[in-house]
């Protein structure tokens, strides 16, 4: 990207039913221009953030599943387009989602 690129102008859009998660931007040139100790610390910070990201995504996914199940369990507020849930297939789906990471 160009040097005068403004990250505040970035907009992400998704189709209905898709939630855009946390967006992270990095200025790689900044990490290169730091003194060696600062650059090392920046790399360590980024490595830790990269380790946290999958856990955060799992947590947010679990929140979505919980909200879905709560809507299904209430019976009255469930939208018409949601199909009834077979508990066995839901466990299989959740297992597949977990194994993806």
Describe the structure in your own words.
With 101 residues, the protein is mainly alpha-helical. The chain has one domain (7-100). The chain contains three helices and no strands. The chain has helices at 28-33, 36-74, 87-100. The mean pLDDT is 75.
Structural descriptors:
58% helix
Number of helices: 3
What is the approximate shape? elongated
Order of helices and strands: HHH
Beta-strand percentage? under 5%
Beta strands, count: 0
Taking the sheet with the most strands, its summary is: none
Quick description:
With about 100 residues, the chain is mainly α.
Topology at a glance:
Elements lengths: L27 H6 L2 H39 L12 H14 L1
């Amino acid at each position: 990207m160009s040097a005068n690129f403004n990250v505040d102008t970035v907009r992400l859009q998704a189709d209905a039913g898709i939630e855009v998660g946390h967006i992270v931007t990095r200025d790689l040139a900044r990490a290169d221009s730091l003194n060696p100790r600062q650059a090392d610390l920046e790399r360590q910070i980024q490595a830790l953030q990269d380790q946290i990201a999958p856990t955060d995504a799992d947590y947010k996914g679990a929140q979505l599943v919980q909200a879905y199940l709560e809507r299904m369990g209430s019976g009255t507020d469930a939208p018409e387009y949601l199909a009834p849930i077979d508990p066995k297939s839901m466990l299989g789906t959740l297992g597949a989602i977990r194994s993806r990471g």
